[in-house]
Amino acid sequence: MNQRKRNSWLKLIALNACMLSSLLSTDLLAQTSTDKPTQIEVDLTKDKGPLKPIWAWFGYDEPNYTYMKDGKKLLTEISKLSKVPVYVRVHSLLVTGDGEAALKWGSTNAYTEDANGKPVYNWTIVDKIFDTFIERGMKPIAQIGFMPQALSTKPEPYRHHWKPGDNYNDIYLGWAYPPKDYAKWSELVYQWVKHSVAKYGQKEVESWYWELWNEPNISYWKGTTEEYIKLYDYTADAVKRALPTAKMGGPEVTGPGNEKSHTFFKAFMDHIVNGKNYVTGKVGTPIDFITFHAKGAPKLVDGHVQMNMGTQLRDIDKGFEVVASYPSLKNLPIIIGESDPEGCAACSEDFSPQNAYRNGTMYSSYTAASFARKYDLAQSRGVNLAGAVTWAFEFEDQPWFRGFRDLATNGVDKPVLNVFRMFGMMPGNRVEVKSGLAYDYARVRDESVRAEADINALASKDARSAAVMVWNYHDDNVPAADAPVSVRLKGLPNKKVTLHHYRIDKEFSNSYEVWKKMGSPKNPTTEQVAELEATGQLKELSAPESVPVTSGEATLNFALPRQGVSLLKLSWD
Q: Is 215 a catalytic site residue?
C-alpha cells in the first residue's frame, strides 16, 4: 500500500471512529434524557391558600429614571404583567439636587431653606415620580429619605459621582447623616404626607406604604442605632399626624443573618414593643409592616459564575425568625424590601465578572426557584409575607447588555422579566406539588444548589384554569444536557383542557441570545431593535394543544434545558 492510499485509509478510519463516537455520545445523551425523567406531581385538589403576588414588587436606586423614556416604557410593561397593582420602591426621594439622573444617585430638591433658615418645600419632582406610578395603576412604597442637605449634620461633601469600578464606600456622604433638627425633619415628613393626601386623595394614600430610610445598619446611615430609632419615632409620629390611617414601617435592615445586622434589627423591634417613644414619652411606637433585605452571593469558580441561593434564603429565614419571636408583631405584613441574587444592581459585569449571570437565563431560573422558596419559608415560620421587592429596573442610556442587574436594556426586555410575566399568569390559590423531589426549601436554604439540579415546580389554580411553573436551576452556570420532565396533574375536570406552554431558555423569550447572534452590535439598527423587542417578550414553546384527561388526570412530558423555565397554563370552559 503506497503512502497516499495509507493516509486515505487512516483518515477514513478516523472519520468512522469520530462518527461512532458521536453516535455513542448521542445515544448516551438520549438514554440520559429518557431513562430517568424528573417526576413532578401536582394535585389540584389540595388547596394551600392564596398564591400571594409577592413578586409584584420592584425597586431601584435612581428615582429620576422613573419618568425618562425607557423608564416609562418599562414601568408600563411591569404594570401590565400583573392583575394586581404593582408596588415600586425607590431611593433618594428627599435628596437635595437638580433632578439629574446618575448611577446610584437621584434627587428631588423637596426641601431647602431660605437665607433665614425657613423651610422651603418643593414637591414638583416627587410628584412627577409618583404621578408616573399612579398613571399606570402602580403604588409607591414611599421611602422617607435621604437627608436633605440643609438638614444634614454633615452637609459637605454631599453628592457623590460614583461609576462602576469606583470604590463603593465613597458614595456615603452628607445625604446619609442624621438631621441637625429633628423637629424640622418631622415637619418635612408631615408636610409631604399632607401634600400627598391633598393631591392624590386619602383613599389612594392609604393604599401606599411609608417607610424610613434604607439599610440603616450599614453605611446608608451615618448615625447610631439609637439615632435611627429616634428618627423613626419622629417620622412615624409625623406620618400618623398627617394621616392616622397611613401604613408606616421599617427598618429595612440588610442581611439579618449577620450578627451586627441581627443586633440592629432586634434593638429596633424591642424599641417598637417596649421602648420609650422619643416624641410621646410613652411605651411603644406605631408600626404597620416590617421590612428587611436579603441577598445572595455569586462568585467566579473555575471561570464560571456560581450563585449562592442558600445565602439569600438563610437571611430571609433569619428575618422571619426575628419577626416571629415578637408575638404582638408576628402577624404584621412583611416586605422584603430588596430580595436579590446579590447586592449591587449598578455594579456592571465588566467590572464585576461574578455578575455575568444577569443578561441570560441564569437570572430567570434563579428568580423562579428562589421566589417559590420564599412562600415555603414564610409558611414554615408562620409569618405574613406580603411582598419581596426585586431590586432591578433599567439604566438609561447605557451600553447594550452591559451586565447591570436590570429588567431591560435600552427598552428591550431581558429574559428575567418574562419570569414575572409567568407569575402574572398564575391564577388563584396555590396547590400541592408532591414532595420527594431532589430539593425542598430547607435543603436549598442549608446547602444551596451544588449537587444535582433543582428541578421543581410551583402550581396554582382557579375555577377555570391551572398553571405550573417548572424550572431547571443550578448554582453553577455550566453546560448540561436537557432534563426530561414528566408533570402529572390530578384533579382536572373531565372535559376539554387546552394547554399553552410558555418557555424561557436560549431559544425562547431571550433577547440576549438574539443580540449575540447579531454580533453584539453596540448600536443596533432600527430593524434590529424591533427584532430584539419582539424576542424579549414571553413566547410559547409550541402551538396550543388539547390535553387528554382520564379520570381527572393528565401527564405532560417535555425536555427542559438547564437554567430554563416553563409555564404550563391549562384552561377549560
A: yes
